[in-house]
Design a protein that fits this description.
This protein is mainly alpha-helical. It has ten helices and three strands, in the order H-H-E-E-H-H-H-E-H-H-H-H-H. The protein has a three-stranded mixed beta sheet.
Length: 253
């Protein structure tokens, strides 16, 4: 029998088809986000796979976010079973030999941890989007995270952040209140760090504009990937500094 020895161009669609049929829906979202690469290592028999004289063996690399790779690796036997059905050896003449699961070579970020339901819901979502190389999709979530995080620090330290009518101050104004508090209480040691925090007031004002007019928060023409990554890196750096030197809650006698 002759085989084409070609890896299916529509492999992900075939994988999804068999995953559903085999009740392995757990793999549907991870495989959609992952990148699949393969290497033809020659005749399967000589590659150590007995019983497949005319087949070629392939080694497979799966690139993805750590959260997606964990799902696949924790269920690897089932994943390989679905993978091989989608590969269709009887048509392609290909049979899988080895699998490597590799994290995306993408920028990653660390956001502050805080025991707050909203923050702990948003943090893994934002991190996963960055690991998947989709920073633009993370912009509106990061704005919400930043707003909630700064308000929480202010609430913990009794820093007022509401207008006279009860509405919250905008994000950059909250940052201004925090900067004043940090400076007045000598919480920042270097002039460099203090200037950087003060500069972030205008940056967060610009972040408001990005969230409203350049993100998927609304039907907008969105910001490009390179600048989205830059926004994420700068904002997360500011948040981590604030978290590391956050003021202690007041002591009431």
């Amino acid at each position: 029998m002759s085989y084409n020895y070609n890896f299916p161009e529509d492999f992900k669609a075939l994988f999804a088809k068999y995953a559903k049929a085999m009740k392995m829906e757990i793999f549907l979202e991870p495989i959609k986000r992952c990148e699949i690469k393969h290497r033809d290592v020659g005749y399967a028999y000589y590659a150590g796979i007995c019983g497949y004289w005319d087949f070629h063996a392939i080694d497979v690399d799966i690139f993805g976010a750590e959260t997606d790779l964990e799902i696949i690796e924790d269920n690897k036997p089932n994943f390989v079973q679905v993978f091989n059905r989608a590969l269709d050896p009887e048509t392609t003449g290909l049979v899988s030999r080895e699998f490597l699961f590799l994290p995306h070579d993408k920028p990653t970020i660390n956001l502050p941890e805080k025991p707050d339901p909203t923050l702990e819901t948003l943090r893994p979502e934002i991190t996963a989007l960055i690991e998947e190389g989709k920073p633009t999709l993370a912009l509106d979530r990061l704005h919400t995270f930043t707003t909630k995080f700064l308000r929480t620090i202010c609430d913990d330290s009794q820093i007022p952040i509401k207008k006279s009518n009860g509405d919250y101050l905008p994000l950059h104004s909250v940052m201004g209140r925090l900067c004043n508090h940090y400076e007045e209480n000598n919480l920042i040691e270097s002039e460099f760090s203090l200037r950087a925090l003060k500069s972030s007031i205008s940056l967060l004002e610009a972040f408001n504009d990005i969230r409203n007019n350049k993100s998927y928060a609304h039907d907008n023409p969105v910001l490009n990937k390179v600048e989205s990554e830059f926004v994420v890196e700068i904002v997360s750096s500011v948040l981590n500094l604030l978290n590391a030197v956050k003021p202690e809650p007041p002591t009431w006698s």
